[in-house]
Design a protein that fits this description.
This protein is mainly alpha-helical. Helix content is 36%, strand content 8%. A hairpin with a 5-residue loop joins strand 3 and strand 4 (115-116). The structure holds cobalamin and iron/sulfur cluster (2 copies).
């Protein structure tokens, strides 16, 4: 983790540098911690479901599903013993969720950097709970089942893996489309074609993510925003965005971020039907939207190398 941060792989996600010692050592978060419980919630979507939004984010925000189940678990534990102390984390807390899920036996961290389960592939989101009681003596990581395969490493459109299992967020389209609040580096822009929020390529190609995996819970079924095209997303009003993204992880990209991404996708595809929207967005009050629109316009004219 320290080496990953020192190499700049976290891009501008400064929050990853904060509370680092706590992230690495559960004892600092929950003194007396003895057990880590890892939870995976499957969200596999059918292959023929096409959306510019990554699979995990097409329906209800997964954070709520984890939060609800962690709360229910905490209640059950307190019924058993009212003095039990717990710390639960989904995503933004200070826990290395993949590492603990692997140690708990849920699956292994694949060369694509994600936790892969035998039954649901990597189509699972994760959360963990620390508790200050010993539950059992189990502490055996899952076997590593990638073998000689390197499909994900080869398929990444931006070469974001400096080494197997290591992701350089600066090059990753997931980071660029969700976390980056500024302009997207020019060499990466064309890679937004077909992707407006997140990226699934290093999962789509994984043989463990095959078609027979059961489709995830109904709450992860696509909401209306996920059915929109890049053109429609680029043309959303702020009110429409607010209404449509409410309760979805997509809200994290914010109104300007989502429109920026959509414009890059349209420009990269040289989508001539988007000309009017692109022209209009060139005058947008948001700098990152106007910048993306001007870049997209150069792509339509076919007069740019990038
Ligand atoms: C920061 C972050 C990102 C960043 C960086 C990605 C990365 N690989 O680190 C960005 C924005 C790029 C990103 C993208 C995505 N993310 Co993300 N992300 C996180 C977050 C918040 C922290 C991860 C982290 O600490 N990274 C830093 C590196 C150094 O750590 P690491 O890879 O976790 O662990 C490595 C080392 O620490 C080391 N290690 C091995 N053993 C041990 C033992 C110990 C004790 C320690 C300390 C370390 C260690 O090996 C590990 C593997 O390389 C987690 C949630 C969480 N709190 O864990 C979600 C999380 C990893 N993301 C998730 C998802 C779904 C995604 C995307 C698929 C979203 C999308 N479709 O666009 C992409 C996939 C990109 C990819 N191939 O990884 C899920 C993954 C679920 C799963 N099945 O694994 C998580 C767990 C969120 C969740 N709650 O479900 N993400
Ligand atoms: S999410 Fe996309 S850009 Fe990021 S590592 Fe995977 S394939 Fe590469
Ligand atoms: S594509 Fe191959 S190397 Fe990559 S995570 Fe899946 S099994 Fe492992």
């Amino acid at each position: 983790m320290k080496a990953w941060l020192a190499s700049g792989n976290a891009a501008d996600m400064d929050w990853m540098h904060r509370r680092l010692e706590e992230r690495l050592d559960p004892e600092r978060v929950l003194p007396g911690v003895q057990t880590v419980i890892a939870l995976g919630i499957p969200y596999h979507r059918p292959k023929d479901e096409v959306s510019p939004v990554a699979s995990y984010a097409r329906g209800r925000d997964y954070h709520y599903a984890h939060r609800d189940r962690m709360r229910a678990l905490r209640r059950l534990l307190l019924e058993l013993d009212a003095t039990i102390d717990t710390y639960a984390c989904v995503d933004t807390g200070v826990a290395m969720e993949k590492v603990w899920a692997e140690r708990a036996g849920l699956g292994w961290i694949g060369k694509n950097g994600l936790l892969i389960t035998r039954d649901f592939g990597s189509w699972v989101t994760l959360s963990v709970m620390y508790i200050d009681r010993a539950v059992d003596a189990f502490d055996r990581p899952h076997d590593f089942l990638c073998g000689d395969c390197v499909r994900c490493l080869k398929a990444c459109p931006t070469k974001a893996f400096p080494a197997p299992g290591v992701v350089d967020a600066r090059r990753c389209l997931s980071y660029q489309s969700i976390e980056n609040r500024g302009v997207v580096p020019v060499p990466l822009r064309k890679r937004f074609v077909g992707r407006v929020f997140g990226c699934d390529t290093c999962q789509d190609v994984c043989p463990w993510n095959h078609d027979e995996i059961p489709v995830g819970d109904r709450r992860f079924e696509p909401r209306p925003l996920s059915a929109l095209s890049a053109l429609e997303l680029a043309d959303l009003t702020q009110d429409q965005f607010k209404t449509l993204s409410s309760g979805m992880a997509v809200a994290r990209a914010q109104y300007d971020g989502l429109r920026r991404n959509a414009l890059l996708a349209l420009g990269g595809a040289r989508d001539q039907s988007a000309r009017a929207v692109i022209e209009r967005r060139c005058e947008d009050s948001s700098d990152i939207v106007a910048d993306a629109a001007r870049w997209a316009r150069t792509q339509l004219h076919g007069d740019a190398a990038d």
